[in-house]
Design brief:
Length: 485
């Protein structure tokens, strides 16, 4: 994998390029028996060069082979400044890539299409749709997403429209276009939109919507959007769920975060041959740019996640079953009960591991249970099960002695189940760690977090039940194998 051979922060089973900078995943698709996953790639970490579409393939969602870029900028064309975010679709035994062209003289990113006979090289770029008319006061327009929807091809493009206080402020929008041939497109209208609310908070809906992605799940439609701000840039990803209709997302509910951590952005959606909706995201750095430049690499893609909805239309996120194939033997498996007066250690934890935890307590009237990843003297990452609050929290305030590494605590709410009439409560979670990234799954929610311990592995997992009586259950740590190269 990329970066220095002794860089224990570098990923071994998350997709990223051989060198340089990686951000948005683009257009995952199953084509001719393989998964093709594309992503934004710049060959130098300071990002002085144009964006290409990096490329990786897999037959099982676990082992990935990296290839040369599949979509490259063309001098003298609108995309000479870079081939930016978009997606792919298969039609007539060919793949079509829809993407945003980075044109430095254009205030909007032109939407273009290229095609491929094998998925390994896209050529023949042509323009697709025009930016919104000036009468709508557009301020941003980019990131096409194309899919087959209610009997025709549809395209969403993210947009932001200006607004004054009398109108309710800036409007984030996903604009809908339709086509019968993937070439000629007609503007239908707003598929969904929302005036900005919660500015500066964890639920800020943004001044524009980047990377709109859509999936229909029965009667429900789920729209994923990146909330973008002119001054802060990227913030977080929101899901809006409503009734799936041909021309709009009807009656969407509240906008909710799809990842509770600080390092997830730019989702990319596909439907696999079994009908599952799979989603990848960009894992942002969680450290100052100077540290990334020094390491000479930046960014990676998340593991795939399966999107489902509850009967009430609430989105849920789970790791696909295939990821169990990453396991390369158990480091240790501990069986409870775990005594409140002592701690239990798992030694020799590598930089690539999975924590599988299932615990039960007699009730909520007890102190938090702590799982601490001890990486060095005065360095540790903490996972806290707060039985009273019902939360699972990741605390990275002491995870690194490097001042360039970001801090903070991040929580999954409603992760503890049970407790009715004072009865027992339980929690189940999986944490997959790959060098400097952890992806936590609990109660149908996800949390992506970066951390950079200076001390290399092996590390120690320390389980402390907390005052209030013993905690029963099991804690298993699995060694995970390298799977990208």
């Amino acid at each position: 994998m990329p970066a220095l051979p002794n860089d224990h922060h570098a990923p071994h089973f998350h997709v990223r390029s051989v060198d340089g900078y990686v951000n948005d995943p683009n257009g995952p698709v199953h084509y001719r028996g393989s998964y093709h996953l594309y992503f934004q790639q710049v060959f130098d970490t300071p990002r002085t060069g144009p964006v290409h579409w990096g490329h990786a393939t897999s037959t099982d969602l676990v082992t990935w082979t990296l290839h040369r870029p599949a979509l490259t900028p063309s001098p003298g064309t609108p995309d000479e400044g870079g081939c930016w975010s978009g997606n792919t679709v298969a039609a007539d035994d060919r793949l079509y890539a829809f993407y945003s062209a980075c044109d430095s003289v254009n205030p909007f990113q032109p939407v273009r299409r290229a095609e491929s006979a094998d998925g390994f090289e896209f050529t023949g770029s042509i323009p697709m749709v025009d930016a919104p008319d000036a009468s709508e006061s557009p301020v941003q327009f980019r990131d096409p997403f194309v899919w087959w929807h209610h009997g025709r091809w549809c395209m969403l493009v993210g947009a932001g429209l200006a607004g004054d206080e009398a109108d309710g402020g800036a409007l984030g929008q996903a604009r809908l276009y339709e086509s019968s041939d993937l070439t000629n497109w007609t503007y239908v209208g707003p598929f969904a939109g929302r005036r900005r609310t919660g500015e500066g908070t964890d639920h800020d809906t943004g001044m524009m919507w980047e990377c709109p992605q859509y999936a229909s799940l029965g009667e429900w439609g789920v729209l994923l959007v990146g909330a973008w701000d002119r001054h802060e840039g990227i913030t977080h990803v929101l899901a809006l769920t409503g009734r799936d209709e041909a021309d709009r997302l009807a009656d969407p509910g509240p906008a909710v975060r799809i990842d509770q951590g600080p390092n997830f952005y730019a989702p990319s959606v596909m439907r696999d041959p079994d009908g599952r909706v799979l989603v990848w995201g960009w894992v942002t750095e969680g450290r100052d740019a100077s540290a990334s430049i020094e390491a000479d690499w930046s960014g990676m893609l998340t593991l795939p996640r399966v999107l489902t909805v509850t009967d009430e239309g609430e989105p849920r996120w789970h790791p696909p079953a295939e990821l169990a194939a990453l396991r390369d033997g158990a480091v240790a498996s501990l069986e409870g009960p775990f005594d409140a007066d002592s701690s239990v250690d798992v030694e020799d934890v590598p930089a690539q591991f999975e924590l599988d935890l299932a615990l039960t307590a007699s009730g909520t009237d007890r102190e938090s249970t702590q799982v601490r990843l001890v990486t060095g003297e005065a360095e540790h990452l903490d996972l806290l099960v707060d039985w009273r609050a019902g939360t699972v929290t990741v605390d990275r305030d002491s995870a690194s002695l490097d001042s360039r590494s970001h801090r903070g605590t991040f929580s999954i709410a409603d992760a503890v189940t049970g407790g009715e009439a004072g009865g027992p409560v339980s929690v189940e979670l999986r944490l997959l760690v790959d060098g400097s990234v952890g992806e936590l799954f609990a109660a149908g929610q996800a949390l992506t977090c970066r951390f950079y311990p200076q001390s290399p592995p092996p590390w120690t997992l320390r389980v402390t039940a907390g005052d209030g009586g013993p905690v029963d259950g099991r804690v298993t740590a699995w060694r995970l194998r390298r799977s990208v190269g």
